[in-house]
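Worked Example 4.2. Consider the chain below.
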Amino acid sequence: MRTNVPGGVRVVAAPDRGAPVSLGRIAHGQHPESLLHSAGWIVQTPLSAVVARDGAIELAYRVSPLSGIPPRLEEVRRDPDVSAHLTGEPHQRVAAYALVVTGKGVLLTKFTAQTHVSGQWGLPGGGLEPGETPAEGVLREVWEETGQRVRLGALVAIQSSHWIGRAPSRAVEDFHAIRLVYRADCPDPTDPVIHDVGGTTGDARWVPPDQLHDLALTPSWRAFEALVPTDDHSSDR
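Applying the procedure from the previous section yields the following structure tokens:
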């Protein structure tokens, strides 16, 4: 499996009472919360994402005992132009993003044709580099994509998406995206500047909150309630 985190992704349950419990690594395509459900826990909130000594990313969740039927998590999706008999190389990618809100608006970036969501908008951030912590990665990405210096706050969301589709190269790929989303503030917001010219970011802006609905956000970010608090969400990628 191709991945930017060779140590894998491990899940830790932190109940209100008792010591944290390591539940092991998630499989390719597995939502971290499904591992918690199978161990008898339900998520209250994400707590942290750190690099362990063995190189694994440890995702810690505040949890409580699960009672009843576990919530249903999203299933593997397949792009319409990828027939059922086609399989691609498994690719698991861990990325970190920042939800930055100032008096200028919400900091957003526009994706280029190097991605599968060309022309759409989302939060600044991207894939971790080898050995990089999520906190280091998101600070680097925000600077490269927008030129802003930000201060990280709490980890507010851990997203997991699994689909079989075509990469920008048109190769079929079995892709598992794990997105770590942090709140952040920007003490000195300036006009965005893209330092990583020629990469996956084509534009960067401060967008007033009341104009978010006018932008073509990627479905994943449009469904992120901390960014767009509405009931009108898309279920697609």
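The helical segments are 32-38, 134-146, 219-222. The mean pLDDT is 93. Compare this with Example 4.1 before moving on.
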